[in-house]
């Protein structure tokens, strides 16, 4: 059985896809450095290997690569940060970022690690919404490795998973600032890029689901309701495939809001159905904070819906589930 070095894997993959060294390595390393890696004259760090593979739409973990304790520790901390940010646990994410920063003292030259650290710091400071300063900071961080961002269509770029996450957050930032047109523009480009370059990649499904979810939200806020509904149908299928069940509730709530904006009377039952699905998803995931927020929003903006038998029964189930979980915790 043949054994390939990381450099040889990069070379075989790059050549099979018809990508030049200059196209692939831009912003991560020089073409001459990549050439040395591919010819066994220099061993790439794991983070460079992973980023270059991701830019080619590949999953680096599919290859048996041995890494040291330090790098493994950094991967653990990056995962911890991502999970805390995903669940909006900003204080805990900040603590993990502090730990990560201490570990990165050993890797001052690894731009990609420090790019992740900077992104985490910016997101931790958002407090629910981004401002112009934070969007600028994220854009500057992205330009460390994608200096041509803004001057070249995203679909023509080779991007790592981290770079895709940065662009997604920049789009959210524009949406938070009220520039839904720019948010939708970036998210459409991201969607097209993922469809063209990341089919079959494990991380692609997760990232694609996130992009679709945000696209539905900002299309709705931009009053592009028909396109929002079409993308929502696609998003429901992708969310189911990716296993991002925590996001299903958000999507169904957004759909209820869109139907309400189109015609509240005409789509009365649709609104109830989507809100019911949203609450059921939150109850299934024990995401009580999200369910409470949905109930409060219904009470504030659509109070008459709470009298519908369907929602009435789901709210009763919600109360029983919360009580049962509370009793279980007390017993423990």
Number of helices: 16
Distance N terminus to C terminus? 53 Å
List how many beta strands DSSP finds: 0
**Morphology:** globular
**What is the radius of gyration?**
22 Å
Low-confidence stretches: none
- Given helix and strand content, the structural type is mainly alpha
Portion of residues within helices: over 70%
What about the largest sheet? none
Overall pLDDT: 88
DSSP strand content? under 5%
Order of helices and strands: HHHHHHHHHHHHHHHH
Task: Based on the model shown, name its key terms.
332 residues, mainly alpha, 0% strand, globular
Explain the layout of strands and helices.
Elements: H1 6-16, H2 21-25, H3 31-38, H4 46-55, H5 69-86, H6 90-103, H7 111-124, H8 132-142, H9 161-176, H10 180-197, H11 202-221, H12 225-242, H13 248-263, H14 268-284, H15 288-301, H16 309-331
Written overview of the protein:
With 332 residues, the protein is an all-alpha fold. It has a domain at 270-332. Helix content is 70%, strand content 0%. The chain contains 16 helices and no strands. The chain has helices at 6-16, 21-25, 31-38, 46-55, 69-86, 90-103, 111-124, 132-142, 161-176, 180-197, 202-221, 225-242, 248-263, 268-284, 288-301, 309-331. Helix 11 (202-221) packs antiparallel against helix 12. The longest helix is centred in the last third of the chain and has 23 residues, at 309-331. It is globular and about 70 Å long. The protein starts with 5 loop residues before the first helix and ends with a helix. The mean pLDDT is 88.
């Amino acid at each position: 059985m043949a054994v390939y070095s990381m450099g040889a894997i990069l070379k075989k993959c790059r050549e099979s896809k018809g990508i030049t060294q200059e196209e692939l390595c831009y912003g991560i390393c020089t073409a001459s450095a990549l050439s040395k890696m591919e010819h066994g004259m220099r061993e790439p760090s794991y983070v460079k290997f992973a980023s270059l593979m991701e830019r080619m739409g590949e999953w680096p973990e599919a290859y048996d690569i041995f890494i040291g304790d330090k790098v493994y520790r950094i991967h653990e901390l990056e995962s911890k940060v991502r999970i805390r940010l995903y669940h909006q646990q900003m204080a805990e994410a900040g603590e993990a970022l502090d730990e990560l920063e201490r570990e990165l003292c050993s890797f001052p030259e690894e731009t990609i690690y420090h790019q992740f650290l900077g992104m985490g710091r910016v997101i931790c400071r958002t407090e629910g919404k981004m401002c112009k300063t934070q969007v600028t900071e994220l854009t500057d961080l992205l330009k460390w490795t994608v200096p041509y961002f803004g001057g070249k269509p995203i679909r023509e770029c080779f991007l790592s998973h981290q770079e895709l996450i940065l662009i997604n957050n920049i789009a959210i930032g524009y949406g938070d600032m009220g520039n839904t047109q720019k948010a939708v523009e970036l998210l459409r480009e991201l969607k097209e890029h993922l469809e063209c370059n990341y089919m079959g990649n494990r991380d692609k499904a997760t990232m694609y689901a996130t992009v679709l979810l945000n696209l539905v939200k900002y299309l709705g806020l931009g009053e592009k309701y028909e396109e929002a509904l079409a993308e929502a149908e696609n998003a429901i299928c992708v969310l189911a495939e990716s296993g991002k069940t925590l996001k299903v509730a958000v999507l169904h709530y957004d759909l209820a809001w869109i139907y309400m904006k189109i015609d509240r009377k005409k789509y009365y039952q649709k609104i109830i159905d989507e809100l019911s699905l949203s609450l059921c998803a939150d109850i299934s995931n024990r995401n009580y904070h999200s369910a409470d927020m949905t109930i409060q929003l219904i009470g504030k903006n659509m109070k008459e819906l709470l009298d519908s038998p369907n929602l009435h029964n789901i709210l009763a189930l919600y109360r029983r589930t919360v009580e049962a979980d509370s009793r279980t915790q007390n017993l423990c």
